[in-house]
Amino acid sequence: MSIAGNITQIKKSLPKGVTLVAVSKFHPVEALTEAYEAGQRIFGESRAQELKAKQAVLPNDIEWHFIGPLQSNKVKDMAAYIHTIHSIDSLKLLQEVNKQALKHNRIIQVLLEIHVAKEESKHGFSAEEVRKLLANEEWKTLTHIRISGLIGMATFTEDENQVRSEFRQLKELFDSIRKTYFPDDPEFSTLSMGMSDDYPIAIAEGSTMIRVGSKIFGER
Ligand SMILES: *Cc1c(COP(=O)(O)O)cnc(C)c1O
After folding, report:
1. Test site for ligand 1: of 195, 196, 210, 212, most ligand atoms within 8 A of the Cβ
2. Mutate to test the pocket of ligand 1, among 46, 111, 115 (most ligand atoms within 8 A of CB)
3. Is 70 touching ligand 1 by the criterion CB < 6 Å?
4. pLDDT in tens, 17-74
5. Which pLDDT does position 53 carry in this prediction?
6. Residue 138: is its pLDDT beyond 90?
7. Nearest CA to ligand 1 atom 5
8. Is there an atom of ligand 1 within 6 Å of 67 CB?
9. 138 alpha carbon – ligand 1 mean position (Å)
């Protein structure tokens, strides 16, 4: 099927309250244009250089999400326009995003990345680490970021029960963190989980934002 057809089909299947991020990394501008013309406005990219090149030539009403590992020194390249950064895994990075957002007099939304998958990864907080970050009030002094939720990835496995149980853990952590640290903050509302192969499970477990690449644009 076409990119437009894929988007229409996925969107039709989404319950209310679930947002689709079209993950366009490694795909050419023409592919994004086709998605844009089908009505898609939220795109996810994972490399700073590639994001910069695409943002420069695509329409201004696109909401860009950065979903890849992010080095502090790359934040300034996207600070003028990035809508949401999904890959916050340290206080240092959060501080840098705040600093760069301040320079542009804007607020950048961020998601805290949680590591639940079995694979070894340098990225993402454990449940304990994210609680420690939020219990320390330092982040509250950061006026130009808005923590709008959590993101996590399940283990890459055929075992659906494993995937489901990891998404469930994320959802439980999300609910608990919201209750403890954001009780009066309706903006803390995003649980970004689910990709091409597992988004139906993620949605069943409470995802509010799915990040879909290959099911829209084909294999990379
Ligand atoms: C590449 C990527 C996706 C999309 O993966 P697909 O399997 O192609 O849907 C989603 N989230 C993150 C963080 C990614 O890096």
Report:
1. 195
2. 46
3. no
4. 999 999 999 999 999 999 999 999 999 999 999 999 999 999 999 999 999 999 999 9
5. 98
6. yes
7. 213
8. yes
9. 31
* Ligand 1 binding pocket includes 152 (Cβ within 6 Å): no
What does the pLDDT look like over 77-115, one tens digit per residue? Answer: 999 999 999 999 999 999 999 999 999 999 999 999 999
pTM above 0.85, yes or no: yes
Centre of ligand 1 from the C-alpha of residue 220, in Å: 10
Ligand 1 nearest atom to the CA of residue 197, by list position: 7
SS (H, E, C) the chain: CCHHHHHHHHHHHCCCCCEEEEECCCCCHHHHHHHHHCCCCEEEECCHHHHHHHHHHCCCCCEEEECCCCCHHHHHHHCCCCCEEEEECCHHHHHHHHHHHHHCCCCEEEEEEEECCCCCCCCCECHHHHHHHHHCHHHHHCCCEEEEEEEEECCCCCCHHHHHHHHHHHHHHHHHHHHHHCCCCCCCCEEECCCCCCHHHHHHCCCCEEEECHHHHCCC
Per-residue pLDDT at 122: 67
